[in-house]
Every structure is written in C-alpha cells, then in structure tokens.
Design a protein that fits this description.
Elements lengths: L46 E10 L6 E9 L4 E7 L6 H10 L6
Antiparallel strand pairs: 1-2, 2-3
Protein name: NRBP2 protein
Organism: Sakesphorus luctuosus
Length: 104
C-alpha cells in the first residue's frame, strides 16, 4: 500500500500523429542556405551527486565508462560510453555540456 509500484504500460498505445504539410514550397536555388545544426537544449539543473564507474570490456581492449548523475530535482541520469584512447576528461565534459546532458 505504501510501497513502490512497478512501472507498467507507460508506452503510448498508438503513435501521436504529426501534422502533414501538403506540399513543400519550392526554394530558389540562389537563396538556399547551408543547413545549420539544430541547437541543443541547455541543461539548467545542477548535478548534486555523481558516481563514475570504469570497467574493462570483455575482450579487455577498451574501457567502458558509466556515469550516474543525480540532478537537483532528484532526477537520475545514467550515461554510458566506450572510451577511445584519444579521449580525455576535459573533452568529455565539454561534450556533455554541448549535448545538454549536464549544466556547465
């Protein structure tokens, strides 16, 4: 009665319909711009607790990084990554901020 209930059937029974455009307007080739990358959402919540785990893969050729982040609103975020020999901590942290996984 006061315990935690399992999460069940939280998937949508049918996909949400997206509005369709009947026809795309023709663009003038001279006015066409190069595609700009989509902006990423900026994470505004701060990480209050972090747990980092490094393990060797089964073939012992590569490290696997798992980060468990607890944000200030008690949301848990778990991120996993196979480390490359060229990776360093500063670049990984910059990438996490860039993609909106953590607050700067």
């Amino acid at each position: 009665r006061n315990g935690i209930y399992p999460l069940m059937n939280f998937a949508v029974s049918r996909p949400h319909a997206l509005p369709r455009v009947l026809s795309q307007p023709q663009e003038d080739p001279q006015k066409a711009k190069t595609p700009t990358p989509e902006p990423f959402d900026v994470e505004t919540r701060k990480v209050v607790q972090m747990q980092c785990n490094l393990e060797l893969n089964e073939d012992k050729s590569q490290w696997h990084l798992t980060l468990l982040l607890i944000l200030e609103d008690k949301l848990h975020r778990q991120l996993s990554y196979d480390l490359l020999p060229t990776d360093n901590s500063k670049d990984l942290a910059t990438e996490l901020v860039h993609y909106g996984f953590i607050h700067e």
